[in-house]
Amino acid sequence: MVKKPLFLIFLGMGALVLAAPGLEAQNLPPRLERGIELYGRGQWRDAAAELRRAQADAMTPNDQGEALYWIALAELSAGEYEAVISDLDELLRVNPLGRRAAEVPYEKGRALFYLGGYDPAIILLSGYASRAADPARKAQAMYWVGECLFALGRLDDAHDIFSRIIDEFPQSVKYEAASYRISLINQKKVEDELLSLLQWSHEESLKTVEDYQRRERSYDQAIIAYQKRIADMLRDTRLEDLETANSEYQRQIAELRAALERTVPGTPPEDRMTRLLGLKVRARELEQALSGELDGTAGGESR
Asked: Buried b / exposed e across 275-288, counting CB within 10 Å, b at 16+?
């Protein structure tokens, strides 16, 4: 932030003092004039102290109201905003019809702005702007209404107010400040749009990832189901083959038994023995084959 030279700040304050409403040539008590002079120099606390003494010495409600008005301005510059509101309320109490009473809503609205009371500040400042006969004061009040709206995040309304100041009051001291605020609002809108776009893109990315993961889980489950079905089909086919082979072995064993039973008793012992041994070997082979089939099926299921 560029810092302004001190002499410009004091020059601005001097201009504010000279331009203050109701500060035309008037006979003010010396202490009151001294306090206003200290305020114009930027010595706000010294000014407030001197003006307090002027308030205590005031002989008329007008002088007392004048002292309270400048005290409030000094406190506003010093950042003592709650004290500003208190002294302005006191001004209305002691001199409600005085020349400074009409300025109370403007200064009180500014103090409320700095305290964060934007809504009541808007009410006071808007009412002041609608009644102000001086275009300069009207523009200044409108500017602070715009600042309140900006602080509340009501950017479109604030933009309208600042645009009115630029269009209707091009000579206002708030012209540059209003232009700057419009630039900030436009930039903020662009940032909000970009942020919204990024948020939407992020949400869409999350949805895409979640959809991919969901589909991947679905595919995995389908593959597992297919593998189980294939295993079941293979097992069923193996069992069917085994049952067929078992039936065949059982048939051959039955034939061997029948052959044994048909062995003729009158056959020579050597031929009968040879035949019995051959049938026994064949039965052993069938038994081993059946056992091997059973072992193979059991081993396949264990895998």
From this structure: eeeebeeebeebee
Helix, strand, coil percentages (3-state) for the chain, rounded to 5, are 85, 0, 15
Residue 2: its H or E element: none
In the chain, the percentage of residues whose pLDDT exceeds 70 is 60
**Separation of alpha carbons 100 and 91, rounded Å:** 8
Give, as one character, the DSSP assignment of residue 102: G
Q: Smallest Cα–Cα separation from 102: which of 87, 90, 92?
A: 92
> Do the beta carbons of residue 47 and residue 19 sit within 8 Å?
no
Does domain 9-111 bear CATH number 1.25.40? yes
In the 8-state DSSP scheme, what is residue 42?
A: T
Domain boundaries, the chain: 9-111, 215-302
* 255 vs 122: CA distance, rounded Å: 114
Q: How does residue 283 score in pLDDT terms, banded at 50, 70 and 90?
A: low
Q: How far is CA 72 from CA 39, 67, 69, 208, in A?
A: 11, 9, 5, 61
Residue 14 has pLDDT above 50, yes or no: no
CB atoms under 10 Å from CB of 144, counted, come to 23
pLDDT at position 83 is 97
Rounded distance between C-alpha atoms, residue 218 and residue 27, angstroms: 92
What value does the CA radius of gyration of the chain take, rounded to a whole number of Å?
Answer: 52
pLDDT at 249: 66
For the ranges 65-69, 232-236, 248-252, 289-293, the one whose mean pLDDT is highest: 65-69
Question: What pLDDT shows up at residue 260?
Answer: 61
For range 53-61, the mean pLDDT:
93
Residues 193 and 158: beta-carbon distance below 8 Å = no
22 — alpha (psi -120 to 50), left (phi > 0) or beta?
Answer: left
